[in-house]
Write a structure and sequence with these properties.
- The chain contains six helices and five strands, in the order αααβαβαβββα.
- It starts with 8 loop residues before the first helix and ends in a 29-residue tail after the last helix.
- By secondary structure, it is an alpha/beta fold.
- Strands 1-3-2-4-5 form a five-stranded mixed sheet.
- Among the domains are: 41 residues, no CATH class; 98 residues, Glutaredoxin, CATH 3.40.30.
- One of its GO terms (cellular component) is cytoplasm.
- This is Thioredoxin-like protein.
């Protein structure tokens, strides 16, 4: 005996010729998630107290997301801002401290000699720059064969290469040096960055804040 409800090829042929009635459609499967109320429906049906609780939950969630983002940003900044002082180097460690290090961050090589009066002024500025811009490496280097007339000199290393140099520059103004480094993307000066008068203070008064 033929079972008209069986899903067989023969029954399909009989249905095609009208011998058997068409199959009844299967009930549509319902996704359980479709039965859940939408957020709009929840809000519409909530009391004022329930709405306050929902808003507090949302605020906490947003604040927690912002908090985690800020923590990640601060940790990334801390990994970059690892210097903060003017480091003295010599010929024996120049490649490691400058060339190799510049593959990870910008390196400012401040070539000076303490016996050169102008160097005594610029050294104080370089110390302050190193303290303020900790993501950039500042090193002090007295090359023995370098003539006094070429001091002070700045060498800018980035990506393992010498990118710029400033030889025997006249400027002793902290702000001018900072803006020069900023123009090369060696340091980042914010729009509201404040340069105090004390940044340019020095016991030496024989030199003006000339431009380069």
């Amino acid at each position: 005996m033929i079972n008209p409800n069986e899903d067989t090829e023969w029954n399909d042929i009989l249905r095609a010729h009208g011998v058997l009635p068409p199959k009844e459609p299967k009930p549509e499967e319902i996704d359980p998630n479709d039965l859940l109320p939408t957020r709009e429906e929840i809000l519409e049906q909530s009391t004022l107290d329930e709405l306050d609780e929902l808003l507090e939950d949302d605020d906490r969630r947003v604040l927690e997301q912002y908090r985690q983002k800020r923590i990640a940003e601060m940790q990334a900044l801390a990994r970059k801002e690892k210097y903060g002082s003017l480091i003295t180097i010599d010929e024996t460690n120049f490649v490691r401290e400058v060339t190799e290090a510049s593959k990870e961050c910008a390196v400012v090589v401040y070539m000076c000699r303490d016996s050169v009066p102008q160097c005594r002024i610029v050294t104080e500025h370089m110390k302050k720059l190193a303290e303020r811009f900790k993501a950039t490496k500042f090193v002090k280097y007295d090359m023995r064969a370098y003539p006094d007339r070429n001091f002070p000199t700045l060498l800018i290393y980035q990506e393992g290469q010498l990118k710029d140099q400033l030889i025997a520059f006249k400027g002793t103004d902290f702000k001018t040096i900072a803006l020069y480094l900023h123009s090369l993307d060696v340091i980042k000066i914010e729009k509201d960055e404040v340069f105090d008068k004390k940044d340019n203070s020095s016991s030496e008064s024989d030199y003006d804040s000339d431009d380069y």
